[in-house]
Specification:
By secondary structure, the chain is of the alpha+beta class. Helices cover about 25% and strands about 25% of the residues. The longest helix has 10 residues, at about 35-45.
């Protein structure tokens, strides 16, 4: 059974009302442990205000829209 690796960060950014997804490449994952502190640092560098967004790390990039 193939083990899934959490390599997607999905962000609900309330400041601009948009959903963002960042794919973290496998190459980067070997050097980056997606703990809370490193994720928040990454998102801040991407321009997100951490006080006004929610985020999660996961393995499935599929978005479900209704």
């Amino acid at each position: 059974m193939k083990q899934e690796i959490a390599n997607i960060i999905t962000v609900l950014d309330f400041e601009n009302g948009r959903v963002f997804q960042y794919k973290i490449s496998d190459q980067r994952l070997t050097a980056w442990n997606p703990d809370e502190e490193s994720c928040e640092e990454f998102l801040s560098k991407c321009g997100h205000n951490l006080q006004n967004c929610e985020w999660m790390v996961h393995e499935n990039p599929k978005l479900i829209t209704i």
